[in-house]
Amino acid sequence: MDKIVVKNLCFKYKENKEETLSDINLMFDNRSTAIIGQNGAGKTTFVKLLKGLLKQNSGEIIVCGKDTKDSTAAELAKYIGLVFQNPNDQIFKSKVIDEVMFGPLNIGMSSETARKNSVEALKILGLDNLIDENPYDLGLSERKLITIASIVAMDTDIIIFDEPTIAQDFAGKEKIKRLIKELRNKGKTVLTIIHDMDFVAEVFERTIVFNKGRVILDGNTKDVYSNEEILKKAYLELPHVTQLCRQLGYNETFLTVDDFVEFYKNN
Ligand SMILES: Nc1ncnc2c1ncn2[C@@H]1O[C@H](COP(=O)(O)OP(=O)(O)OP(=O)(O)O)[C@@H](O)[C@H]1O
């Protein structure tokens, strides 16, 4: 079933002359989905509309059966969680556990379930030893993971990450990769705005490309990455292994080194 249906969506910020989003038509099922596109393409605006933080000028957005135009952001928070790009926009409590439990409590979860979910989410991200710390005493990468845990703990059907890998080293990226796969296996719909094309290739089943407020590509990641010319025009650079294989004359699109090695061994 499609958890989000977007029809003929248009949006313009009052102070801007041009539309930021024009005629967007998309449906989201359980596939893990990356939303990519150059800076200013409209990705963050799009997810803010899904979450009900902005209201469209025209078109329709249905989230878990609810029309976002008739729903408050508080009502939609039960269905859709959004992790902001900058953790400092989200964190305000002085203890990690209180910060992570805030969202679950706010949507009406019992404190017992909120605590259980919060500890579980912190554990998945390897942060359960920081429960009593002040988030502001921690580094940017840990603060970012805490904001991710706090949304995961809300156990919403749809979870959106805005640039989750920023400020993460290899270990942090691996944690986020594992988390996204785990959420997907639990049947959650995970949408992620991201610039890291290698991460997209390794993790996401579906990729949507935004360009100047429109969707220019949408499909399984391998098919989308096969449209080299369109991606180039949108100033998006393919992963190095994909480029290398193309330059070596392979017609097939390889998303990861493992993909290529597997193919190479069998041919
Ligand atoms: N609050 C706002 N008021 C007016 N214009 C805005 C506002 N927020 C964003 N914009 C403009 O809308 C356009 C789309 O911005 P948006 O942040 O949605 O793009 P993005 O694809 O998420 O970019 P990035 O990858 O840099 O985060 C940009 O031209 C931006 O300047």
From TrEMBL:
Keyword annotations: ATP-binding, Cell membrane, Membrane, Nucleotide-binding, Translocase, Transport
UniProt KW Glycoprotein keyword: no
Gene3D superfamilies associated with the record: P-loop containing nucleotide triphosphate hydrolases (3.40.50.300)
Membrane topology per record: Peripheral membrane protein
Pfam family, one: ABC_tran
SMART domains listed in its UniProt record: AAA
Stored InterPro entries: AAA+_ATPase, ABC_transporter-like_ATP-bd, ABC_transpr_CbiO/EcfA_su, ECF_ABC_transporter_ATP-bd, P-loop_NTPase
Sequence similarity: Belongs to the ABC transporter superfamily.
UniProt name for this protein: ABC transporter ATP-binding protein
